[in-house]
Amino acid sequence: MAKMTIVHRSSPLGWLATLSLLCGILAMPVDIETECSEGTNAKYSLVFTGKWSQMAFPKQYPMYRPPAQWSHLIGVTHSSDYHIWQSNEFASNGVREFAEKGEAWTLMKEVEAAGERIQSVYGVFSAPAVVGGTGQTSSEFEVYTRHSFLSFIVRIVPSPDWFVGVDSINLCEGGHWRENVSLDLFPFDAGTDSGFTFSSPNFETIPQEKVMQITSSFPSHPANSFYYPRLKHLPPMARVTLTKIKSNHIFSLPLEPTQSNQIPIDNEIKDPLINTPLDCEVSAWSPWGLCRGKCGEPGMKRRTRYIHLHPANNGQPAPHWRKRKPAILITACER
User: Fold this and answer.
1) Which one is the CATH code of 12-268: 2.60.40.2130, 1.10.3720.10, 3.10.580.10, 3.40.190.10?
2) Where is the Spondin domain (predicted)?
3) pLDDT tens readout for residues 87-99
4) Which of 22, 74, 242, 313 has its CA 20 to 30 A from that of 205?
C-alpha cells in the first residue's frame, strides 16, 4: 500500500475537512474483504447517538447559555501502538484543548506527528456536532489490516473538561472484520479543569490529574453534576454503533452537516425511556435564633434551612417540615 501524507496549514476546520479525505478520497465502488488478512481493508459507518436527556440526567441539566449539546466528533484509525487518549493516563495538550474548549488544532497536529513519526495513524475523520443532548450524527471511515483500531472523542457541551469516546477498539477479531459493534458511552474527566458542574467557570487543575471515568459516586461531592448516590451506575450518556459497509458500496464523506449525516432526533425513540431519580437536597440547619417571648414566660426560638435541589423523577421528597421556603423549625424555650 502506498504511503499517503497530507499537509495542511490553515484553520482547525480546514484540518478536519482535509484530514477527513483520508477515508474518502474517491467516491467510487470499493471491494471489501471479509477477512482482515494482510493487505485488506474495510469500511464502516459510524452513528453516534446522544442520550443526554433531562429525564436521564436531571441534576443541573443545562437548559441555556449554552444548552446541552455535543461537539463534533474526531475519530482516528490506527495501529495498536497509538492512543488519542487513555483512561488513567495524562491527557495530551491537544486533548486538553479539545475537552475544555472544543478546539481541534493542537490535537490534529499531534495526530499528524504520530502518523509521521511511527506511521501508526491510517486515517482521520470527523462527524458534525449534535445540537442537543439527544440526537444523532454519523460518518464513515476505513480501517486497514495493520491499522485496525478505532478511537474517537466527543466533547460534552457545556462542561469543564468532560467528554465521551472510545479508546482503541479493534475491528479485526479472530481474523475477520467485525460486522456490527454497539457500545454505550459514559463521561470522562480529562483531569485538566477542577470544575464540578456543567457550567463551572474555568478552574485549572494544578498539578494536572489523569483521565478518569466519572461515575455516580466519583467525584464524591454533592455539588458534582453527575453525583447520584442512589445509583450503582450512571445511565449511558451516549451510544456508538459501527456497521461494516457491504461490498460495492459507494463511499464518500460529506464535509458539512447534511440531511444524510445529521439524523433526526426522532430516530432515537427505539430506546427505552430512562428516568433517573433525583433526591431533594437541603442546606444544613442554621444556628438557633434568640428566644422570643415575655420575660418569665415560655418563649419560642427558631432555625431555618433551605432547599438547594428539588426532587425529580420520583426522587426522595423533602420531609413535611421542609416544604416552605425557607423551612422553619420552632421549639419552646425559657427566658
Assistant:
1) 2.60.40.2130
2) 32-222
3) 999 999 999 999 9
4) 74
